[in-house]
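User: Just a sanity check before I run the rest of the batch. Below are the structure tokens for the first item. I only need the designed sequence back.
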């Protein structure tokens, strides 16, 4: 199966998890394709100044792969700068947030899997 980029749909969410501004989420696989193993496989875009608020993962894990831009991550209370090529992992029971601190869009792949 091939899903063409022109066929993928995006949704925009405001103040996600209490964050600032909007995030655009383009699901790369839908629920049926994840086959009950995960909740999300998506390309996310945060414009400058936008953020996803701090939230905890319960019953799942999440990984971010940073494609472009510059962000500040809160990794269980520790602030860490992330840039293109970095991977962030949040385990079951852990918390994280991410904010675009740069001047261009922060783009990253997000994968959430059930544990």
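Assistant: Here's the designed sequence for the first item:
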């Amino acid at each position: 199966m091939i899903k063409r980029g022109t066929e993928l749909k995006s949704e925009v969410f405001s103040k996600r998890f209490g964050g600032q501004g909007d995030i655009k989420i383009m699901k790369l696989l839908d629920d049926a394709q994840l086959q009950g193993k995960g909740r999300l496989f998506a390309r996310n875009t945060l414009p400058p100044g936008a953020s996803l608020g701090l939230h905890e993962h319960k019953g799942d894990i999440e990984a971010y792969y940073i494609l472009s831009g510059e962000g500040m991550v809160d990794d269980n209370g520790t602030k860490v700068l992330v840039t293109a090529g970095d991977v962030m992992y949040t385990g079951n029971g852990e918390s994280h947030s991410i904010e675009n601190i740069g001047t261009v869009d922060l783009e990253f792949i997000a994968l959430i899997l059930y544990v």
